[in-house]
Request: fold
Amino acid sequence: MILVFLGPPGSGKGTQAKMLAEKLKIPHISLGDILREEVRQGSDIGKRAREFMDAGKLVPDELTIELTRKRISDPDCMSGCIIDGFPRSAVQAEAFDNMLDEMKLELGKVIYFKVDKEQVVERLSGRRSCKNCGAVFHVKYKRPKVENKCDLCGGELYQRKDDEEKAIRTRFEVYAEQTKPLIERYQKQNKLAAIDAGGSIESVFSRLLSVVGYGRN
Ligand code: AP5
Reply:
């Protein structure tokens, strides 16, 4: 089953996608993580993407479309995957429909993470990510065992450049203009499932499991 996670910056898509991928034993594909890795490696794609990402703007559609096409063609995605952060524009959504058709893959559900802006700003401003493995923590809600060190690999934690105030503002504007309209598109296709993404990580995960048909027991 292919699941797409859609929602504003900081709504918890990445956190929940990791947890669900582990439970369902399917890959988690985060376009943000893929792009950050390209930047880290200093690849041509990374060099092109960096300034857009730091400013909180969308990187050009052709880059994300090709990266997604390449990744979902990998054999480990054939029995399903969770895509977090794609599509984010009408052009990407159209290209995504076409690539699924070509690959004879079916979109299961688009999970829309609904949460108010105040919670999201608090989540983003407290987020810390591992420089080495990309694991995500929060200074209040998901504290590392040792301050500023990743629980998984011991790497140093840092604050993403796009989690600074100016870039957060731009990301919200971009989301409202380009990504939010996709909600209607998937509603019309009868694929949309909205969840209340407010509250604790565990409570959101319980709701998510119910929506994808794995009620907790
Ligand atoms: P990306 O990395 O995807 O950023 P985003 O969509 O803005 O999402 P975030 O990663 O900020 O938030 P999230 O919803 O995953 O929240 P998280 O789980 O981390 O993209 C970055 C950039 O890449 C874009 O701006 C763009 O430039 C580019 N890009 C990516 N995809 C693209 C595309 N398709 N087209 C063009 N450009 C693209 O949680 C946030 C924090 O809150 C964490 O600290 C977490 O621990 C904490 N938290 C999570 N859930 C809870 C909870 N329930 N309670 C308390 N704290 C919580």
About this structure: Residues 7, 9-15, 31-32, 35, 52-53, 56-59, 64, 85-86, 88, 92, 123-124, 126-127, 136-138, 141-142, 162, 171, 200-201, 204 surround BIS(adenosine)-5'-pentaphosphate (CB under 6 Å). The domain at 2-117+172-212 is CATH 3.40.50.300 (Rossmann fold).
